[in-house]
Amino acid sequence: MTEDIDIDTDDLQRRMDGALAALKAEFASLRTGRASASMLDNILVDAYGAPTPINQVATVNVPEPRMITINVWDKSLVGKVEKAIRASGLGINPVVDGTILRLPIPELNEERRRELAKVAGQYAEQARIAVRNVRRDGMDMVKKAKAAGMSEDDQKMWSDEIQSMTDKTIARIDELLERKQAEIMQV
Fold it and tell me: Name one Pfam family in it (predicted).
């Protein structure tokens, strides 16, 4: 009977990897003083009556380390793109030149660097919580399997495997956070 009981660790690992991927995407959107096209990923423009990401109404380029250029395809959207960037809270003032917007990336001051490092820490904590929730789901599966007749040895083996997956993923989150904070604090 115990052969029928199996814990889907692949699904648990996939969900933990999803939390890591979400964390990487959030880290990419944090400004570090260097230009990155991903800084604009979360900004939506009201284009043709629907909120649309900037990269779907324009070409985004990073010609130099402290400059982003946006070539808007439709002239009527230039003002809306500029307004969306100003309202985004990135602290960047676009310079409009026809259909091209230039975004000079200013140096970050020490106070802003500390704030961004704290935000990165919050993102990492959200990812840790997500991983722990996946772990809890896995442990619940083990408890249900025990009630269905799983041996104590199998229960211990599955619990240890789930805990090992959790520990490795949280260690990876901590490593990513440490790297991101070092990048933010770098002058």
Answer: RRF
